[in-house]
Design goal:
By secondary structure, this protein is α+β, with helices and mostly antiparallel strands. The protein has 10 helices and 6 strands. The strands form 3 sheets. The protein has a two-stranded antiparallel ribbon. A two-stranded antiparallel sheet has the order 3-4. It has a two-stranded antiparallel sheet with strand order 5-6. A hairpin with a 2-residue loop joins β3 and β4. The longest helix has 22 residues, at 193-214. It is globular and about 50 Å long.
Length: 215
């Protein structure tokens, strides 16, 4: 699957890789970042809305992506839970589904073995380094470019907004967070229902990342 066809959670996972060192960064928080990306992706597709501070599933159409469909199904059959709860709790299945999707598309390789012959451990390696670099360059252009925020594709604006809130320094450095604070505010402040959902997600994602790093 070409990188431009990837959903937000898949793109965020790829963006977390330092392609020079072939190393995944933000390992303590990547599951939460990917889950937030999945929530935002469902909103962009019109399948998820905000209902009094909680995500609610609207149209029950299949996306064809297990990470998204399984999350939508889980939200639909679970008791109402605030956005923060869905970002904090049970993120591993979404992360696993995203990794498997990227592996099937050839972006990653997954090697599972048993530690001590008992505990299963999966080693993840980035295969398509060029695709990861291209995705990062595009995200940086979205952040630093002069094109008005309202003129950018929704998914590009959401991607950079989530990457910044999720602390993905491979895309938005600490210096960028300050230098482009107005640009980031404009990207996050886009109009429409999907970005209303995104505005609900962002403070919860930032808090989750800050707590994880403080620990």
């Amino acid at each position: 699957m070409p990188q431009h066809q990837l959903s937000l959670p898949a793109r965020l996972y790829l963006l977390a890789w330092n392609t020079d060192k072939q190393k995944l960064t933000s390992t303590d928080t990547i599951g939460h970042v990917v889950r937030a990306g999945a929530l935002a992706e469902l909103a962009l597709r019109g399948l998820l809305a905000d209902a009094h501070g909680r995500p609610a599933v609207g149209e029950r159409a299949s996306t064809g992506e297990p990470a998204l469909d399984e999350l939508a199904e889980l939200i639909a059959r679970s008791r109402p839970l605030a956005w923060k709860g869905w970002i904090n709790q049970g993120v591993k299945p979404t992360l696993t589904a995203v990794r498997e999707q990227l592996a099937e598309a050839g972006h990653l390789s997954l090697d599972t073995h048993r530690l001590g012959g008992v505990v299963p451990v999966t080693t993840v390696n980035l295969r398509l380094t060029e695709a990861g670099d291209t995705l990062r360059h595009q995200a940086v252009r979205t952040l630093r470019g002069e094109e008005p925020a309202d003129a950018l594709p929704d998914r590009d604006a959401a991607l950079v907004t989530l990457a910044a809130a999720g602390g993905l320094r491979t895309v938005v450095s600490e210096a960028d967070s300050w230098a482009y604070r107005q640009r980031l505010a404009a990207l996050a402040g886009r109009g429409g229902p999907a970005f209303d959902v995104l505005r609900r997600i962002l403070p919860e994602l930032r808090e989750t990342v800050e707590v994880a790093h403080a620990g």
